[in-house]
Sequence to fold (238 residues):
Amino acid sequence: MSERRFELIRGDASEQIAVGIRQYVAREGLEPGDRLGTEQELAAEFGVSRPTLREALRMLSSSHLVRATRGPGGGIFVESTPNEGLSRNLSESIAAMLETGSVSLRELVDTRLFLEVPLAGLAAEHATNAVADELEAAIVDAQGNPPESEAFRLADTRFHRIIAATAGNELMSAFTSWVLDVLQPSLIAAIGTRIDGDTILAQHREILRAIRRGQVTGAERAMARHISYMREVLEGVS
Fold:
């Protein structure tokens, strides 16, 4: 490696390396599966011992950013983007809190109100016709399936992920991802049979109409009504 790829910051050597690699992955737009180099190559580039490099890689591995493979063609590879890694860490943490009872389904639904209402407004500002068509396709895929089914849940989750991604706020999108990852399966298990699928789809269409027309306030109100409905159903079984 004749040209230095990584920038270092002050601090512990292993922390410097971890930050340098994280910044490089984000700056270069690397994707899962992209190769960073071998352990020996990275240690030489950073000018550190292999144990120091391994500690940095351990930090990055624990946040799902990199993975190491051995054998011919092995090395250090990107496992997930920084945003995806953040979502996975948050999902695992919140799942553990839900399992231990330190956070409730009601609290997670309330969190969706704070996150997804403004995201719907932002999506209305930024959505293209192609995005609106993707949202329409998600609604169509949910039709004809009971709300407690996997097919309905996946289509519902896709609808909300598209909105979050379209909003253009990466941090809020990451937070929304972990809420969906953790909340949706548990929520459907708790109230799936009590949800009116036609009501959900009608609410999704209302959100879509506002987004397609670029109506920021309308999209926010439609999303608020949608999530409030889920909260009402949940309260009915609590």
